[in-house]
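Re-run with default settings, no changes from the original entry. Doing this only to confirm the output is reproducible before filing.
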Amino acid sequence: MNLVLHLITSFIASAAFGIIFNAPKRTLLQCGFSGMAGWAVYFLLDERLDTIYATVAATLIVGVISQIFARIYKKPVILFSVSGIIPLVPGGMAYDAMRNFVSSEYNMAVQLAAQAFLISGSIAIGLVLSEVLNQIIRKIRLP
């Protein structure tokens, strides 16, 4: 039941960000699906792996799905990938880090800020890996 609730809320968050991102109405379901798929991978792997590795894997899935949707619906990849990574962005953690800085709890603030920075970097790595994977597959298919 907990997984179902996570899937529903991540779908809604990604589709809602698609609206804010001014995505075409026809693509909102795909935007929501990419975020839901990424969050499902993260949710399932976060218990077994470190948060950083789970985020890289989830972002890689979001990137691959975004590449597929971009090709099928003939839309830019960024449309699906930006909406898809929204559930993975450590906004709450960054907020808590800043709140701890203001409260003069510097040790906790630095720890949270470093974790948010690492998660943000792992999102970037996952997106780059999906693009590299796409380029490799395209080069293999072309000859």
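Residues 106-141 form the longest helix (36 residues). The two ends are 47 Å apart (CA to CA).
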